[in-house]
Amino acid sequence: MVLNAENLTIQAVNSAYKQALNGRDVNGLPVTEVFSGRNVDELLKLLQSVARDGQSMNTGPIIASVGDGNPKSSRFVHTVVPITDASGSTVTRLFIYSEKVV
């Protein structure tokens, strides 16, 4: 999934996210309207930190996911990678990779 770093809106989703979202079109929506679970605030803080600092980060297993059958109990590890402008000085987008913990 790719987010706009400034306002954390979704710019693009890959096929795995599309499947998890049951084909729902989420482009242009804020990440807070798409992710659910009791640790969404933790994920949001991580996204803001990566956008501000420009350093890749990942979460430990947290309850924050998209479209998973039971977002109240499914835990995911999220890796967030900043994408900068051509000069490399400004983070313009964030790439999120989410993996379910079994």
Beta-strand residue fraction = 25-35%
Termini gap: 21 Å
Rg from Cα: 13 Å
Number of strands: 7
The count of domains is 1
Task: Throw out a few tags for this protein.
about 20% helix; about 30% strand; globular; single chain; about 100 residues
Please render the helix and strand layout as text:
Elements: E1 2-4, E2 10-12, H1 15-20, E3 35-36, H2 40-53, E4 57-58, E5 65-66, E6 76-84, E7 91-100
Explain this structure to me?
- The relative contact order is 0.22.
- It is built from two helices and seven strands; from the N terminus they run ββαβαββββ.
- A hairpin with a 6-residue loop joins strand 6 (76-84) and strand 7 (91-100).
- It has helices at residues 15-20, 40-53; strands spanning 2-4, 10-12, 35-36, 57-58, 65-66, 76-84, 91-100.
- It has one domain: Beta-Lactamase (2-Layer Sandwich).
- The chain is α+β, with helices and mostly antiparallel strands and 102 residues long.
- The model has no long low-confidence stretch (mean pLDDT 92).
- The strands form two sheets. A five-stranded antiparallel beta sheet has the order 2-1-7-6-4, with helices on one face. A two-stranded antiparallel sheet has the order 3-5.
- The radius of gyration is 13 Å and the shape is globular.
State the gist of this model:
Helix content is 20%, strand content 30%.
